[in-house]
Amino acid sequence: MDYRWRVTAVFLLGFFLDCINIFMSAIALPDVAQTMAVGPSLIGWVGNAYILGLVVVMPISTWLSGYLGTRRLLVLSMLLFSVAVLACGYADSFARLIVWRFIQGLGGGLLIPVGQALVFNLFPGAQRGRVSTVIMATALIAPAFSPTLGGIIVDHGSWRWVFFANVPFSLLAAVLAWLWIEKGRGAQVAEPDLKGLILIGLVLASVLIALSLYADRGFRTGVVAGLAAALVCGAAYWFHHKKTRNPIVDISLMGNRRLAVAMLVYHAVPGVFTGVNLTAIFYFQTVLGFSAQSTGQFMLFYAAGALVAMVAGQRVSASLGSRFLLAVGITLHSIGIVCLVGVHAADQVPLLIAAYTMMGVGGGLSANTAQTIALLDFKGRHMEQGSVIWNLNRQIAFSLGVAAMTLVLALVKRWLPAISPYPATFLFATVLCLSALCVLPSLSPLLLERKS
Predict the structure, then answer these.
(1) Which end of the chain is less packed: N or C, by CB atoms within 10 Å?
(2) pTM of the model
(3) Structural domain of residue 106, as residue ranges?
(4) Which of 63, 114, 124, 59 is nearest to 379 (CA)?
């Protein structure tokens, strides 16, 4: 196998593990909540803790790569991931599960931005569109099959095996990284911006804690304090960033039009979908009476639609342009969410299939186009920094999507008890998704072909 594709294979395996740890664990959350005796608002921290770990460590992954060397860093990340995911399966309390999920996120967060930057630097120019499609296809294979597999595990065994099942794959990734990545010495790099890292972690943690407290307990003082803390930490990082030579996240790169639009689209489509999917899992299992396996199988239709959309989108991107593809993708994804609003009984399976297929088509088209244009203008060091920002945004989008949908669901239950809360939440998600159309006019009508 060509060296470029060996490197790509190692990255894709780690990326695959990251994806299944969002979707495969989600299908088990109703059972985890029952075992740990926690509500839907707090159970979201099984995902939030993992994402918070990713967010904390991703910005220093580039520095660690320079200090340790890429091969050693990738091996260590997968070994840490293996230990943490094993401990998650054995966790006997909710607090311990959350701690180990955070550590698991630390392991995964070391591999993703470094691996993606390495792969993208090996596939310059027009070739990047092809490898980007392969990356996004991997991101679809995981949610296609992992929820179904997770459902089978939960229905016929224990939710703990949802975590244990990761161990062979993470160990395989460690072995392949050692065998296939070229050995290189660590480069001389600047010391990491630990102050900036702490401030960024506090911003996200404050927002998530505030939203969770309000959704779970209606604690208004807590949410105001949490959001205020996030604003203060965010402002502190802004001033810190301007005074620091090597900030942990180079905010100035977000002034790039393509990256900025791609980041916003990712919040509105994949981010919103992650929250919608978690809400739907509880709706299907606790209200409509679906089994975990049956719930997971709807993701097969999502993945099928997304795969078709990505392949077709890649072929017509040069003639239609990124702005048109994103507009179509956002619209189709919103139509899919609207279909969920009309689901009120377990016998409406055709409507559910249509909903997930439509969300898949729209999500695949939007996510793949956003992934392709996000780092199109960057090379070398800026590519590494841009990769960190892009992957941070991807993880934050997932976390905020879950937090937003959980909060809306709780508010509808609390303030509008006469309204069915789940359809109302899906309707809100539709509006949130469509709002992304507002940022598209800033893109050139035909963007991809100008850069290819």
Answers:
(1) N
(2) 0.83
(3) 3-179+248-451
(4) 124
